[in-house]
Amino acid sequence: MKRSIYLQPTGIFWDRSPARGVDEAETHTWHGLPLAGTPLSFAAVDILTRTRAVTKRTTVVLGDAFSGDWSRDALAASDLLAALSAPRPRLAGLSLDRPRIMGIVNVTPDSFSDGGLHANTTAAIAHALRLAEQGADILDIGGESTRPGSDAVALDEELRRVIPVIEGLRGKTDKLISVDTRKAEVMRRAAQVGADILNDVSALTHDPDALHVAAETGLPVMLMHAQGDPKTMNDDPQYTDVVLDVFDFLESRIQICEAAGIPKAKIIADPGIGFGKHLAHNVAVMAGLSLYHGLGVPLLLGASRKKMIDQLCDVPGAKDRVPGSLACALVGAEAGVQIFRVHDVAETKQALEVWRASKAGTEAGLA
Ligand code: 7PJ
Questions:
Q1: pLDDT at residue number 110
Q2: Distance from the CA of 145 to the center of ligand 1, in angstroms?
Q3: CA spacing 20 to 30 A to 125: which of 69, 132, 237, 327?
C-alpha cells in the first residue's frame, strides 16, 4: 500500500543545549527531536499529504504537531516520526554520527570524469590509497560506468576490472571497501576477496540473483533509486511527485530486502541524483533530502561532478564542477545526510570539517 502522508523534518539546527540526549519527551519537544543519529535536531516537520497528483505541504512546529488539528496526521505518521529521530547503527563498524566520505574509484576506460586514467589495476589501487590518505572512510570500486547514456559492461570484463583492485587494496588498507555493481556474480566475488559493502545503483533490481546473493554475503547494501536503465534513463523520466515517488520506491525496496533476509541495520538509502531525473527532479530531491530519514536508515548522497551542476552553472567539464559538488555536500550535511560519495575527497573533507566545527562551535574535526 502506498503512503498518503510523509514527514519532512525542517528547522534543522545543531543542538548545543545541555538537555540534548535527556530521555524525556517534553524536553525533546522543546529542544527539537534528534535527527537520525546526527548531532542535528529538528524543530518542526513539514507534513506532506498526497491524494492522486496533488501534494499538500504544511509546516508544523513539533509541540503543535501533537495537539489540536494535527494530532490525527501526527498519529498517522508516528512511525515516520520515530524513524526520523532514531539513532542509526554502525555501518560495518563505522559510526555515522558525523558526515562520512566515500571516495570514488572508477576502473572504467570510459569513466566520465577520470577519462580512463585509472583504467588499470595498479593505477586504481594507487588512486584509492590516495583517497584514503585524503580522508575517505569508504573506497567505492566500480567497473561499470552507469552514467547516463552508457552501455552495459559484460560480466567477465567487469570482474577483470574490479576484483584485482579490491583484492590488492584489501591487503593495503583498513578503510571500508564498497563495490559499485548491479551484478550478483560481481557481488559474490567481491565479497570473497574482502569487500565490506555492496553498492547497487539499481537497488538490487537489475540482476534477478542480486537480492539472494546480497543476502547470502551478509554484507550491508546501498540501495539507490533510479528510473529506467542507464542507456535511456534521462530521455523522458516521469514522476507524479519526484520526492515522494523516490521515497515510495526506496521504502518498498527496503521491505523487499528485509523479506529476503537483509536486516534493516545493514541498509543504506540513496535518492540517486541524476539517475532518470531531469534538473527539476534533481533539485527537488536535493531540497527534500531530510524527508528520506523517514526510511529509518542512513542516507547516502552522490551528486559529485554531476550534470545537474553543469545545467545550473554552465560548467561542461566534469572536473570544473568541484565547487558545485561541495555545495551539494554542504546542503546534504545540513539535511543530516550521513555519507557522501565524491570524486574530490580532500576538498569535500575540508568543506565538511569547516561546516562541522562552525556548526558545533567547537574545534572537533571529522576524524
Ligand atoms: C552513484 C553511484 C550515486 C550510488 C554512480 C557517477 C555515476 N552509487 N554510482 N550513488 N553514481 N550509491 O558517479 O556520476 O549517486 S556512477
A1: 55
A2: 9
A3: 327
